[in-house]
Specification:
The chain is about 45% helix and about 15% strand. It is an alpha/beta fold. Helix 5 packs across helix 14, helix 9 packs antiparallel against helix 12 and helix 14 crosses helix 15.
Length: about 525
């Protein structure tokens, strides 16, 4: 029995040892699993870390493009540099356009420049004491031509620049009276728009700078520091408002010229209003060498009904805005927009996308170089475009081109109509985009109306090879001036004060070549 008990004890002891060994094996298995999980987690963390490093490198590259002195608009992506690199590889013209490398960085300007004359500059300012007085009289009623009675006059200080740009302050006296026959009040004409104390030459300078997108404060600073004539930004803004209000006749001339056109080119662009983050839209209509600009709060067809109702509703070259399709009877989709969409797909896509873009580019060159086509040829070209677009893979580009298919050959039915609205795009770039940093001057309805009027007239003047400053100088001299038949220019040495009544003493020979005084000026 003792032997059996000893054996049982030994078996129990071995069983305990086996249990201990089994427990150790289980613990080692658990440790192996934990170690394998740790290795797996470490691999995941390394992959995640590599992804974060790649994302950080991409963000740093984007920041280098978008945070430099020549940074693109914040609404854009890095598509521009990618497109430029894509064009450069294929030998496109203009491959080193905006966003390309190789442009020297501008030198650091240091601290912002302080307004006012430079240090040590004495400066010169004008006084409000007139150097002389000039009178403008009237004898007959401007309505019935009868004699006037009860003559009175009103006086105002005016400022303008002379031949060599010294500032002149004068007192003008404008006669007025009442007709004895019809009782109408008549007033003498004077070449000084109401609402401002500036003369025509100063107004031309102010408007030319305004057309370049210069703010009223900077215009005032320029006039003071360069021409030694102290003026406030509010006075500059009032001059812009005054000359815009005096240009009704020229606006009617532009409206009539646009109304006679068989087709128009139109576009619109978003514009910040004031400093509160509000946005509006600037609409541009162009036909030939005239343009019309209007500031509106929306992009809907109601803007066309309310503000472009005088425009013929026949044909237009524009983008795919639904308002154009609903308002005009014939729409030509701008081919430059379509080609830009196709090029974007080629830049970010593969060889097939590039081949489709090359086909579309060749199709555009084929239809744009033929002056006139027979109707059956136009029908064949339309079917060719539709069949080619139908073979595109499903996506945004195919949808965009399919929606544009009915409107890609409209220009072939109108003599002289271009297949693109480049003229409107260039007008926006040259006349409107430059004002996007000058939004404070259009923060009110009056400022937006003045903006629309001045850009309309100034842009039309530029399209006809004339400086905007000259156009508004002529309008200030003569409200009935015809900008499409301007006549000879008086010359840079013309001065509004060249009148017999001025009594202005001039140096010898300074009167040579001067234009005669306005007919309305009286001694």
């Amino acid at each position: 029995m003792e032997k059996i008990a000893g054996l049982e004890a030994k078996v129990a002891e071995q069983a305990a040892e086996i249990a201990v060994l089994n427990a150790g094996a289980t613990e080692r298995a658990l440790l192996r699993k934990e170690l394998a999980a740790a290795f797996e987690n470490n691999a995941k963390l390394e992959a995640e870390n590599a992804g974060l490093k790649a994302e950080a490198a991409e963000q740093a590259a984007r920041l280098a493009v978008c945070d430099g002195p020549n940074a693109p608009s914040s609404t854009l992506t890095t598509y521009g540099p990618r497109r430029n690199a894509w064009r450069k590889e294929r030998g496109y013209k203009g491959s080193d356009g905006a966003g390309s490398d190789g442009k020297p960085a501008p030198p650091d300007g240091g601290a912002p420049r302080k307004m006012g004359p430079p240090e040590g500059h004495k400066g010169v300012s004008h006084c409000n004491k007139p150097a002389f007085t000039i009178g403008y009289g009237i004898l007959e009623c401007d309505g019935c031509g009868g004699p006037l009675e009860r003559f009175t006059s009103w006086r105002k200080l005016v400022n303008d620049f002379d031949q060599n740009w010294p500032a002149i302050t004068a007192m003008i006296e404008v006669g007025q009276g009442w007709c004895g026959a019809c009782g109408k009040h008549s007033e003498a004409w004077a070449p000084f728009p109401k609402g401002t104390s500036f003369g025509p030459k100063a107004i031309g300078l102010i408007v030319e700078l305004y057309m370049a997108g210069v703010t009223a404060a900077k215009i005032a600073h320029f006039i003071e520091s360069m021409l030694y004539f102290r003026v406030s930004a509010a006075a500059v803004a009032r001059a812009i408002q005054a000359v815009a209000g005096a240009s009704g006749k020229q606006l009617e001339d532009i409206k009539r010229a646009l109304g006679k056109s068989a087709f128009a080119q139109m576009d619109e662009t978003g514009f910040k209003i004031g400093v509160l983050g509000r946005t509006g839209y600037v609409w541009v209509a162009i036909a030939g060498k005239v343009m019309w600009v209007h500031f509106a709060p929306t992009r809907g067809a109601a803007v066309l009904d309310e503000h472009f109702g005088w425009l013929p509703r026949g044909a237009v070259v524009a983008d795919g805005l639904p308002a154009y399709r609903a308002w005009f009877r014939h729409l030509q989709r701008c081919w430059r927009h379509l080609l830009a969409r196709s090029e974007s797909a080629a830049v970010d896509g593969g060889p097939e996308d590039e081949a489709r873009h090359n086909w579309l580019l060749g199709y555009y060159r084929k239809i744009s170089t033929v002056p006139a086509l027979a109707p059956f040829t136009v029908m064949y070209l339309g079917r060719e475009f539709h069949d080619a677009v139908s073979a595109y893979p499903e996506g945004k580009l195919k949808t965009h081109l399919s929606n544009a298919a009915p409107y890609v050959l409209t220009f072939l039915g109108f003599r002289g109509m271009p297949p693109h609205n480049n003229a409107a795009e260039l007008a926006i770039r040259d006349n409107i985009v430059t004002h996007r940093n000058n939004h404070r001057m259009i923060s009110t309805p009056e400022g937006r109306e003045a903006f629309s009027r001045i850009i309309t007239i100034g842009g039309t003047a530029r399209m006809n090879g004339m400086f905007a400053g000259r156009a508004f100088t002529e309008i200030a001299r003569n409200p009935d001036w015809n900008m499409f038949d301007p006549g000879p220019w008086a010359g840079p040495d013309w001065c509004v004060f060249d009148a017999p009544a001025s009594g202005l003493v001039r140096p010898p020979g300074s009167a040579a070549g001067r234009a005669p005084a306005p007919a309305a000026a009286s001694a």
